[in-house]
Amino acid sequence: xxxxxxxxxxxxxxxxxxxxxxxxxxxxxxxxxxxxxxxxxxxxxxxxxxxxxxxxxxxxxxxxxxxxxxxxxxxxxxxxxxxxxxxxxxxxxxxxxxxxxxxxxxxxxxxxxxxxxxxxxxxxxxxxxxxxxxxxxxxxxxxxxxxxxxxxxxxxxxxxxxxxxxxxxxxxxxxxxxxxxxxxxxxxxxxxxxxxxxxxxxxxxxxxxxxxxxxxxxxxxxxxxxxxxxxxxxxxxxx
Length: 239
Hints:
alpha/beta, D-Maltodextrin-Binding Protein, domain 2, 2 domains, five-stranded mixed β-sheet, 13 strands, disordered N terminus
């Protein structure tokens, strides 16, 4: 069975090579959500997803270039053709899957955590910040708690610092380094399990490209290199 799976992946990769041999595939990311994706000191896109995307493109024999795009328009600009793939820490959800297509997940679900100035925040009676159009914002709204949304992750942290919000809910992998660096900010004991893992988003009209990246992701799972990359960047638990 394993040989059959690997052969299927190889066929899909080969199809991708033929499909995009002369084309450049544009990878869209936010560049503002370390360690997943961020802009380094040289002004270049960096992080777990930069390294992952480059490796996937190499395995698929694709020529890829990176495009930075704000989170609040990242899906509309994919659909309109500004780039071909979203690789931006985007959790796979039913709501998003109605608009775009997804590859298989390249990380398991990352726990969502709360960052606050005190360990005594009563969440059901607090003002909680989240980045707009995220699974965390949706979770807070479903709970009926008081939600304030911001366009960028940095703004959610600033809202806690200046007292505009009592806590922020985001991926633990994003919040943990901030809590470790700033003595006044701390992670609450409570965590939330939401989302179905993170995948690459593509237009529904590009099934061949999705299959190509699916095969490349599977090949990294099969040889253990994806787990190595996850451990290196500490973005989630391993498969």
